[in-house]
Amino acid sequence: MYLHGTSTINERGHLQIGGCDTTDLAATFGTPLYVMDEELIRKRCREFIQAFRTSGLKFKIAYASKAFCVLAMCRLIDEEELDLDVASDGELYTALQAGFPAERIHLHGSNKTRVELEMALDAGIGCIVVDNLMELELLGSLATEKNKRVNILLRVAPGVEAHTHEYITTGNEDTKFGFDLASGAAFLAVKAVAQYPVFKLLGIHSHIGSQIFEVEGFKLAVDKLITFALQTRDETGIVFQVLNLGGGFGVRYVEGDTPLPITAYVEAITQDIFSVFTSNHYPVPEIQIEPGRSIVGDAGTTLYTVGSIKEIPGIRKYVSINGGLTDNPRPALYQAQYEAMLANRGTEMDEELVTVAGKCCESDTMIRDTRLPRANTGDLLAVSCTGAYTYSMASNYNRYRRPAVVFVKDGTAELVVRRETYLDLINCDVIPVRLRAESLPYRG
Ligand code: LLP
């Protein structure tokens, strides 16, 4: 298993993250356990900031909270002085409860509800990324009613397809997201915005996909946004102050994944901005991005306990763990690949090819065909690069309780999400009177 960030093998031969021995973490907090390397998260935030500073452009980096959104993470992002992108009322609520400054929150979504828009307006968030005409109309009337001015970006579909898994491609023309550039829908949307004095149109937004390893897609998207900005200025006189290129920067899950350094992505996005805009006598816009996975992905490691081991001679050996698709649905959803190691036996050679099986009652394979030392029941199995889209996509299927999350740093581990209790599992359930068991107190 590749050791990301502060991960090392310590003198006890154990995997250690953030100065904390993972066997101690397992003993203290139980398994499964999501372990987040705080230093690495902060390092990634700073790498993005530094790369933009080098570009000399005005910039804003908003962490895409959908990757991992809990109160402590919002606090950390605030401390690192990034903005925060939320995509739902729940993420917005979390950010506000964390005391994240509303003016640095951006709201996304292809089908925002009235509740979400009202919540955003009432909180006075910094920017709403408007996705379609229905939303524009609804937001316009709500803002008028509430007598609020609102900053907006228009999400455009630039018709760029990033080379990535088809389930996570969102920038081509066949997409539910945003106003199409090619058909002229985006241009009509810009004109429609002018009908509402409550709107301040900051600019445009595009997001071309996720887990992208090449810069070409971003450069193409930048070109399309620039062309659109210049055309819009020439035809309407409207000038965009902001170009937002979304997120999508790849991370290394397994050998063979070849993410570029953060600086390479930022350079590709920013390199032509100054010259193109100045040569067109256009005020150089602020460049915004929204990284999610590349901030938290490789900072996460999930610890599991090995349970049953089944060998089918000549066919396969299954090593079962006490978690699976409920804490990480990505292998099942996207055929995502991960690397693993026995965290309590970090100096031993990999001896055999096994399949790490999840616990759910269905096809639940965490890792097909990975090499490990000969595993025993009770071993601690670590899966790396699980910081993004795991806890945030976790479920209670089979009524498993969602695991705890700890932040580790400088030898200290702090709980940021406690493990769910059995009571949490039934807390929203109601038994109608006619179905209640005589022996139980009425829940309702
Ligand atoms: N901005 C927008 C508008 C987005 O839709 C997304 C992700 C991001 C930013 C952040 O993208 P990132 O930097 O994390 O790639 N559940 C999938 C990923 C879905 C991404 C959806 N949008 C997965 O587990 O791979």
Lay out the secondary structure.
Elements: E1 8-9, E2 15-17, E3 20-21, H1 22-29, E4 33-37, H2 38-55, E5 59-64, H3 71-79, E6 83-86, H4 89-97, E7 105-107, H5 114-123, E8 127-130, H6 133-146, E9 150-157, E10 179-180, H7 185-193, E11 199-205, H8 216-236, E12 242-244, H9 262-270, H10 273-279, E13 286-289, H11 293-296, E14 300-312, E15 316-321, H12 330-334, E16 340-342, E17 352-357, E18 365-372, E19 380-384, E20 404-409, E21 412-417, H13 422-426
Helix pairs in contact: 2-9, 4-5, 5-6
The structure holds ligand LLP.
Under CATH at level 1, the class of the largest domain stands as: Alpha Beta
Number of strand segments = 21
Bound molecules: ligand LLP
**Average of pLDDT:** 95
Task: Extract low-pLDDT stretches.
Answer: none
What is the CATH third-level topology name of the largest domain? Answer: TIM Barrel
Largest sheet: 9 strands, mixed
SSE-based structural type = alpha/beta
> What is the helix content?
25-40%
Structure description:
This protein has 444 residues and is α/β, with parallel strands linked by helices. The chain folds into 2 domains: 8-36 and 301-426, Lyase, Ornithine Decarboxylase, Chain A, domain 1 (Beta Barrel), CATH 2.40.37.10; 38-296, TIM Barrel. The protein contains 13 helices and 21 strands. The protein has helices at 22-29, 38-55, 71-79, 89-97, 114-123, 133-146, 185-193, 216-236, 262-270, 273-279, 293-296, 330-334, 422-426; strands at residues 8-9, 15-17, 20-21, 33-37, 59-64, 83-86, 105-107, 127-130, 150-157, 179-180, 199-205, 242-244, 286-289, 300-312, 316-321, 340-342, 352-357, 365-372, 380-384, 404-409, 412-417. Strands 4, 14, 15, 16, 17, 18, 19, 20 and 21 form a 9-stranded mixed sheet that branches. It has an 8-stranded parallel beta barrel with strand order 5-6-7-8-9-11-12-13, surrounded by 6 helices. A 3-stranded antiparallel sheet has the order 1-2-3. Helix 2 (38-55) packs parallel to helix 9 and helix 5 packs across helix 6. The longest helix has 21 residues, at 216-236. The radius of gyration is 24 Å and the shape is globular. The N and C termini lie far apart (48 Å). The model has no long low-confidence stretch (mean pLDDT 95).
